[in-house]
User: What shape does this take?
Amino acid sequence: MKQDANPEFFDKRAVTVTRHKLPLADEIIPWNVDSESGRPDSAGDGVLIDRYGRRHNNLRISVTDRCNLRCTYCMPEEVVFLPRRELLSFEEITRFVETVVPLGIDKVRLTGGEPLLRKELHKLIHMLAALPGLRDISLTTNGLLLAEQAQQLYDAGLRRLNISLDTLDPLHFRQLTRRDGLDKVLTGIQVARQVGFRPIKINMVAIRGFAERDLVPLARFCREWGLELRIIEYMPIGAEEWEQSKVVPAAECLQWIIDDVAPLRSIDYDPSSPAQEYEYIDGRGRVGVIATITRPFCHSCNRLRLTAEGKLRYCLFALEETDVKSMLRSEPFDPHYLQKVVRQVVWSKWEGHQIHSPDFIKPQRTMHAIGG
Ligand code: SAM
Ligand code: SF4
Assistant: This one.
């Protein structure tokens, strides 16, 4: 039976995001406000909330800008990477997280570049796992080095993994990543399953010209191996020329799965998650979609990003960022001052990314240098 994905897909997030149109939250949680600037001035406990009432609990940490692939949608072939001394040390990253946990950050995702290129990453996981109040640590990886590191990462306390894989076709893999390595990624996925990671999500960027042939086999593969497919709409944050025509809308992807794999139904929508979740009607697996382009979720965004060299960003598409490395390296370290700066970064967050507006400006950094 052919189903229509659209009614379920479109009923829950009917919001057009611009930087200035959303109303302020009805009730803003009170804090100390600087009487002159009107900005939050409290450095003590309390939630990180912005001018639009969005509460922030989710931090993405890039541990390196280096990568062993060169995905066309993410980064250029030729790159000058950061000198290693510029990267935040594990102690500095932990110091940052420890400082923001009292402000309500309780979820952290490690990313990059390719995070498994950072030597002894498991030590950082171990340090973060020991922080009281941090309830969720996850990792996004391209999987190339996963087979050899999976057990160490698990033993250090990591449980949740996203592995990026856009295709099961070696030729497409090479075209998309400019490198070989599909076999290694597949081995990494199997080892991660055996070690016990759950859930394992497979991130696929849906790009016109590839997804038509790659999505359905990937969805079947995920269903067979107990993995959750995450379909990500192609965003203008890479090095190559981005065109709307290269974006495959998430609704179209869902329809392909419904037609050629098995029927899906939507699961209760979690407003704090960028992904909309679906499950197969027969109960054999889930599919999530991140529809940044066709259904922006800026109105419920709860994320902050820390780059590998210690710049704090309130949005993937932000045009400004705040250096926190100097604060993390200062002796004596002043956690209250850093908390105040983080609160001000959140306060200055814009309403949304404006990708569809003529005002949209693509950030100078490409995805690998921000942290996906
Ligand atoms: N190297 C790791 C990996 O590939 O999983 C982590 C970093 S990567 C930047 C994080 C995620 O961003 C990946 O799932 C990748 O597919 C996604 N990504 C990169 N460029 C993108 C783009 N232009 N649009 C949508 N997603 C993108
Ligand atoms: Fe590397 Fe991940 Fe970017 Fe691909 S998406 S180039 S694997 S950082």
Remarks:
- The first strand starts at residue 48 and ends at 49.
